[in-house]
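Recall the central idea of this unit: under ordinary conditions, the amino acid sequence of a chain determines the structure it adopts. In this exercise we apply that idea directly, starting from the sequence alone.
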Amino acid sequence: MTPRNYLTTALELARADQRGRPRETNLRRAVSTTYYALFHCLAACCANMLVGGPGANRSRPAWRQTYRALQHGTARQRCQQSTVVARFPSEIQDFADRFVDMQKKRHSADYDPYAMRNPITRLVKSDVIQDIRVAEGIIHGFNQCSARDRRAFAVYVLLDRRI
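Accordingly, the structure predicted from this sequence is:
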């Protein structure tokens, strides 16, 4: 599964190519799936930067272990530390901001049974589609950053900082 696969599924759930209102459950899953596109983009970045990308002479178990080492809460906390994130290129900063934003939206979509009644968390088809499109651009920009910067970000989100 690639981030693009997740985003394609999210668009299908939101019924981006059709008129009418999708079911609430489909919009909720579209939001969740959009977040997971960002999460899996970051997990793959961590594994590729630290163990080796496709075609590299890499250990599959080591790659899988690194991929699975990314923790949702820790990644969010690191992405929220603006003084550290500000040292990275703007594309990585944008990724970090969107990661945090979409994780909050995912939590609301997945766990708040009253989200649709709350004007702040209510899901609207056009907003969900916009989130998907923005995530697509954010992921593209993130992947265009230098390997050096993506590797540094991978180390930052995965490993505890010791001084």
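The chain has one domain: 3-158.
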